[in-house]
Amino acid sequence: MRRWGYRYVVTPSLERVDLLALGLDDEERRRLFKLVDQDGSVLGLVSERTVPVARLVAGKLRGAPLPLRLCYAGPVLSNHPEGFSRQRETQQVGAELIGASGPLADSEVIALAVQALAAAGLRRYQVDVGHSGFFMGLLEGLKLPETAKAAVKAQLVARDFVGLEAILNETPLRREEHQLLLRFPALRGGPEILNAAAGLVRNRRSDAALSELRRVHELLALHGLEAQVSLDLGAIRDFDYYTGITFEGYGPDLGRPLAQGGRYDTLLARFGRPAPATGFVIHLDRVSEALQRAGIQPDPVFLEAAIAWSQGGLEIALRLGQALRGFGLRTVVSTEPRALATARSWATGLGARGYCHVNEGGQIAVGLDRGWHRLSLAEAVAQLAERSAR
Amino acid sequence: MITLAIPTGTLLDDSLGLLRRAGVVDLNRAELGRKLLVEKAGLRCVLVRPADVAAYVNHGAADLGIAGKDQLWEAPGGHYELVDLGFGACSMIVAVPEASPLAAPETWPPTLRLATKYPLATQRFMQRLGQVVDLVHLHGSIELAPLLGLVHGIVDLTQTGRTLRENKLRVVAMVGRSSARLIANQASLKTRSETVQGLVTRLRQSVDA
Fold first, then answer.
1. B77: nearest CA in chain A?
2. Closest Cα to residue A262, out of A94, A46, A53, A110?
3. In the CATH scheme, what architecture does the domain B2-88+179-208 have?
């Protein structure tokens, strides 16, 4: 994420509950772990970090020019019954692009999320992109009392299509409108569904949503992500929070999304710094479960170079270590003298990708595919750096 | 391969009948009961307890499942409820002993003590009424609890009202109507949309026919 220019920020784990509530629905609010502060105010342990980041942007970073690209990582707590072990603490990584609107910003954030899933080692995954405006326009276009609209929304959020149909049967809607509301969640696929959807719905808000989706899809193709991205007009998310493009990332055999994100243009205004914003979160515990199910071992290489030395070779060994670290290689220099004969097993035991030995005379031998090669300091650095880059 | 969770108990025969009529898979009750997991016609069918169907689907262990609405009230979230399959119709009701002075909600005491197998559905219903309840979570023979003076009444399912009558219980409120529903895992609908949607459509057509 840093390679995409997203600055790493750290936000508190404990916040006031009324503040956290801005980004949560009623159910999620109930599931917060809460504590009472000395003055009697109720604090909550963060269950997501978008709201704390938004507050940071409107508070400490008030002076920083927009757009801001920020990312975060850390544990979140929620008394949520999902997951097998009812794990309360899970790990999340996320990014927020604040102060930029439009398809370019949306597609940048989606592309970053896809790259992050790929960097985690996942080989098969897909991202479904939707737009909250499509459904909102659809709903506005219907001649229904507000209470009926709220009921329709509630059933959709609960994903209860049987209940939705029961509600629709009591409304004076025409049969086509009925069918539209019941079937639009199945509108999913490539850009061709946008034409199909445009034929079904005629209102300005839905049309705008469709053309934005079309543009985002084109831009994601430019990012080279056409194969991983589908369009999903039936994406059902919190309609009061998301204001535009939304997306979810799925792994092949996991029942829940690995990544979730979207545009939330109204949140920042609640902190007194109105700004468009979009971002995403990756549920690391689910990613790790998906990796396990796919039989993918996370890359175990931690060390890039290990340096062993015999009595008298310490000075050169330390200089070599400094040089390698200067090139950004994770390097360990042995804390005790070690003979050439045992250097290889020591280094592989540490999991080092490359290794070398410095003898009594300060001569360096680098372990290569076929035995040891005596090299100068500069050559040794070059060899080990090249090995680590492979 | 798609995995379908089928409930044991009263919904089993109707579920197998529907799958056969819709031309999805022809399963034999005895075979499924013996093996619990049968692979047939490109479908993996698992037989699980009615209360567990939603758990299998919510966690993605099954792509689709057949479950009574009464069970879904107790296991919200994580799944799409797609089709009312029509069979297994019953009502969730509040009942009190025939001799009890309690009738409509206005006559209930400030704290109503109830026994039920369905604590979530009961809580939600009573909250809407503004009624405070003291729940005793039981797992069977709920009808006994008020007769022994443990509670004022019960929240339970009834199909014909016979069990209630036999135990001298009288219905005072309706919590909701239940029937069998087809549910789907949220990710399966996205990641295997063609096969899952195809199956859903066939079942829906068979129900509507």
1. A158
2. A110
3. 3-Layer(aba) Sandwich (3.40)
